[in-house]
Amino acid sequence: MSEPLARVLVVDDEADLRSLLQRYLGDQGYAVRTLEDAKTLDTLLARERFDVLVLDVMMPGEDGLAVCRRLRAQGETIPIVMLTARGDPVDRIVGLEMGADDYLPKPFNPRELLARIQALVRRQRMLGAHSGPLPGRGTVRFGDFTLALDARRLDKNGEDVPLTTGEFSLLQAMALHPNRPLGRDRLIELAYGRDHEATDRSIDVQVMRLRKLIEADPSQPAHIQTVWGVGYVFVPEGGAARHGKAGKP
After folding, report:
1. Which helix (H) or strand (E) holds 83?
2. What's the rounded Cα separation, in Å, for the pair 240 and 73?
3. Do 180 and 131 contact (CB within 8 A), yes or no?
4. Run of H or E including 78
5. Is residue 231 a contact partner of residue 182, using CB atoms and an 8 Å limit?
6. Which of 97, 169, 182, 188 is the most buried (most CB within 10 A)?
7. Rounded distance between C-alpha atoms, residue 28 and residue 36, angstroms
8. Average pLDDT, stretch 222-242?
9. 42 touches 62 (CB < 8 A)
């Protein structure tokens, strides 16, 4: 079975539209997941990789503009197409200011949405981008530590802190996605690759080892915090995470 052209996540409260887009985009070779609101969006993004997010503006609960603004504030760079029934050009401007990549007013022809998705996927692949914060080069500093990405080493106040290859890969994956909760499956993909045979338990063990190396008190972690029901979040500045589910292990 061939790989899908891209993975698309559609968040819209209209059941008929979700069904239509799942069927139409699926027929075009895309893998499509749908949600009726944003309640479980963060959990799904933490656990799975998507290439494009199609996000409705008018939804019950947290609306699409608020979701877009929050995701961008968290460092999420997945391309976002906003859908709206509003015709005011100001709404389009607001959506783009919030960090949306494109904007499509309802009603629309599914072929037009397909063309926009294709353009975003092409652009991302040309840039070598991916869903999630863009990886940087150089160093990541947190507390007394400096993580040198190119040299693949961790220093504490200038002294080398030995890390295994697996420990470095996991710490790098979290450090490049700061303040964003990440599920264990997503961490496995980011740190070791999609086909790696690591397990949830192995991630937990690696996290325990890293905490012993970088936390002043591993039982009260400041940098690698647990997010109940999701996984872990890396907090460079230490202290309380900005996510209600975070806490000590």
Report:
1. strand 80-84
2. 17
3. no
4. none
5. yes
6. 182
7. 22
8. 85
9. no
Tokens of residue 236, six digits: 């460079």
Measured N-to-C along each axis, helices 165-175 and 184-192 cross at an angle, to the nearest 10 degrees, of 110
| CA 128/CA 242 separation, integer angstroms | 29
- Cis before 89 (ω within 30): no
Q: Which residue has 């890390």 as its token pair?
A: 163
Distance of CA 109 to the CA centre of its chain: 28
CB atoms within 10 A of CB 111: 10
The residues facing 246 across adjacent strands are 227
Give the span between the Cα atoms of 81 and 202, in whole angstroms: 36
How big is the chain, counted in residues? Answer: 249
For the stretch 167-209, pLDDT in tens is 888 999 999 999 999 999 999 888 877 666 677 888 898 899 9
pTM assigned to the model: 0.66
Buried b / exposed e along 221-240 (16+ C-beta atoms within 10 A):
bbbbbbbeebbbbbbbeeee
pLDDT digits (tens, 9 = 90+) for 31-55: 999 999 999 998 899 888 899 999 9
